[in-house]
């Protein structure tokens, strides 16, 4: 923790926070930058996860608010998903202390590579083809299962959660891409905040570092959300594929090699 006393490390955290916030706002996956950075400073793994949840809450809240103000998100349509995500995040945050995570480290790269391949081979996975904005509440069962599974995953670990939300929402509800991105940011904010409350209660959050990185993520998320709204599909789709493949390669290297 002596490394935290050096100004260069605070500057590095701010820079990583900016980039991670930008990526999170557009496609998700910023945690693959922020969590290793926290671990490099000598922060214990559980505290790194909790601190990242604190920082990510700033970024996801800013991105969700930006999309909401552009009328790309109507919370009334998704209240079941909010509740399910909250419950899932509680369960996942508790399970991370009770279960051996080695199996997840081995399986996660395969899961993310599968999503990348599906996105590449299925043009409609992340496109606006045959999609329309929701005009009524989406099916409750789909919202419940999606929220429980993804909320639990984000509470347990979280790498690539934004990408999971974006792809699954487009597939399940046939949402336009920007609406899927908006929903992803709102739900990740829900699971981030829920997991943060549990990690904080267990004393696994470094509040000062989380605040510093969180403010940087907030700025990066604001810029990222604006870019996504302004440039749309031509900007999001290639960045989505690049980030998902990078996440998969990073996790595969760490877990298998």
Automatic annotation (TrEMBL):
Q: What is its main location?
A: membrane
Keywords, comma-separated and alphabetical:
Cell membrane, Membrane, Transmembrane, Transmembrane helix, Transport
* Record keyword Transport present: yes
* Top-level taxon of origin: Bacteria
Where is the chain membrane-spanning? 12-39, 76-100, 107-126, 146-165, 177-203, 209-229, 236-256
- Cellular localization per UniProt: Cell membrane
Q: Give the way it sits in the membrane.
A: Multi-pass membrane protein
Q: Does the keyword Phosphoprotein apply?
A: no
The entry assigns this protein to a family as follows: Belongs to the 4-toluene sulfonate uptake permease (TSUP) (TC 2.A.102) family.
Protein's recorded name? Probable membrane transporter protein
Q: Which organism is it from?
A: Shewanella cutis
